Amino acid sequence: MTLLTILEFPDPRLRTVATPIESVNDEVRALVEQMFATMYDARGIGLAATQVDIHQRLLVMDVSEDGDEPLVFINPEIVQRDGHKINEEGCLSVPGQYAKVERSAEVRVRALNQQGEAFEMDLEGLAAVCIQHEMDHLEGKLFVDYLSPLKRERLVKKLQKARLSNDAE
Ligand code: ZN
What we know:
By secondary structure, the chain is α+β, with helices and mostly antiparallel strands. The chain is built from three helices and five strands. The chain has a five-stranded antiparallel β-sheet, with helices on both faces.
C-alpha cells in the first residue's frame, strides 16, 4: 500500500481548517486504510487527515500496546469534558520533539464510523489526550501552540538543529 506523506511543522498547510465529510463512501474508506498504514509505519498512535494534506474531518488512532485496536472518527465532536490533566505530547508532524500540554482528562466524542454510522465513545487516559490532539489538527492547530513563546522558540530551534544534522548525514 502506498504510504502518504506526513506534513511537518511549520508547513503552512497544517494550518488549514478541515471541512466535514458529507458522504462516507469507498473513497473515504480507502483513505482510512492508507492513513492507518502511514500511521503504523511512522510508529504513531494517531493521525489526522490534515497531516497528510487532506483537509477533511477524519482521524485514525490506535493507542493499544500491540497496535491492534484501530479506531476511526469521522466528523468528530467532543460533547462532554471532565477534569484536567497535563501530559507530555509528541506529534508525527513535529518529529522528535515533546512538550507538556494540559487537556481535559476525560472526553465523550460523537462521530461517524467507516460505515457512516453515528456512535459515541468515552475516552480517558492516553486515548483522551490523543483524540484532543488529533482534533486540534482538524482545526489547523498544533500542540506547540499551547507552549509559552520561549518554550516554543526553544522547541523550534531544536527541531531545526535536528533537521540540519539529519541533512548532513
Ligand atoms: Zn499531531
